[in-house]
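Feature request, filed as a ticket because there's no other form

It would be nice if the structure record came with a short human-readable summary line next to the tokens. Right now we just get the raw output. Example of a typical job, pasted below so the devs can see what we mean:
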Amino acid sequence: MRLKNARYRRVLRRPAGPVSLSRAFRLSALTIAAALAFCASPCGPFAMPVANASPPSVSSVYELQINGEIEPILSEYIVSGIDAANRAHASLILITIDTPGGLDTSMREIIAAILHSSVPVVTYVSPSGSRAASAGFFILISADVAAMSPGTDTGAASPLLEIAGSPVKVDDTLERKIMNEATAYLRSYAALRGRNVTLAATAVTDAKAFSEEEALSGKLIDLVAPDVQALLSELNGRTITRLDGTKQTLELSNSVVDLHQMSGREKFLDFIADPDTFFILLIVGFLGLYVEFTHPGLFAPGVIGGIALVLALFAMHMLPVNFTGLLLIILAVVLFVLEAKYPTHGILGVGGAIAMLLGALMLVHSPITGGGVSPAIALAVTIPVALIVIFLMRLVLRSYRWKQATGAEQLVGAVGEVTEPVESVGAKGMVMIHGELWRAVASEAIAKGTQVRVNRVQGLTLFVEPVRAGTLVR
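Raw output as currently delivered:
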């Protein structure tokens, strides 16, 4: 480059004189080349800006959470979350698990979504102290990668048949049928995931449970990690085998965890299906309809009670409701009504409160989940409801004893003054009662100014009798 520049300078310094055509052409070409080189150089006027090095790609991790009993609302949340992660082409789906188990149908919906996911799925029993029992065990080993935190357990996946929240004993043939089908379902995908099928089957047939170390050494899970960051660090660069046998390397060096929350609809339905909420809705429904029946025409209690009962029926469809608890609550309401009608110095009222409290504690029960109405909620609802029902029933019964305050019937027993005498039996006189003049007849003659009491009313005629001395005058 220096030589060419030097030569170029030397050419320019030659004295002017005739220039040959070839020499002029070479000089022009050299000038154009130099100009183009300058313009294209980093310092040139048309130099293109040099782009900085592209930042490292960020991998997206969708986190979903299984907390509590596995039921239709939770299943809908997990399935929709997996679908959203697939649409967003996420790098990984992370499902954290802490569950005592749940419904078989909801479990199968979740597993089907995991098996069909184009995005790799990792199931993770976390945090420490959590469990993936019963249906949770099936979900744990269905993922591409199964992991657990220290101090967690899994297994105990024997299926149980429940009716009204209580286990039902079935004959040996049906029991073997249920057990064999559950075991076959577990084997169908556990083998494709490379799990220890023989050991996994014992969680169903023998209800065996495993700590995280036992599950790892038994090849039921792939790794143990203390937290999510450690788990993602372990998974970064790891090559996994998908369900169809293809290999995929996980790139999680710059992963961002995005917690996928329940939608507003799912949160509302999950709130309705809570045992405490279910109990409150049930009592509000009973109380609203009771007020409407005893005080017709108010409308609002009936509307509120009807809506509450419908929501309670929705929750009843999803919760393991024990009908013994439901009958105890109905018995409690009956005892409250009887206490108001036949005062027993609180015996029936106390009995009703005890029945409602026991019914609340027994209302939602399952040997799998162990969930139910909390004692604090049961007590906080029972006492006010008992007082309200007894008070309202006493008002109703007292109103039956009240004398009618409108119409001619209100005159029966009333006392007035004779303004025109009743001169003989069957003769008619006039009586002033409540500021009104009425035609009156009597079984004896009654003088003007005498106080009389009405015995009965017939049309516009009053049948009266004189008020005797010493008789209480109202």
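Something like this underneath would help us a lot:
The chain has three domains: 59-261, 273-401, 408-466.
Residues 202 and 220 are 12 Å apart (CA to CA).
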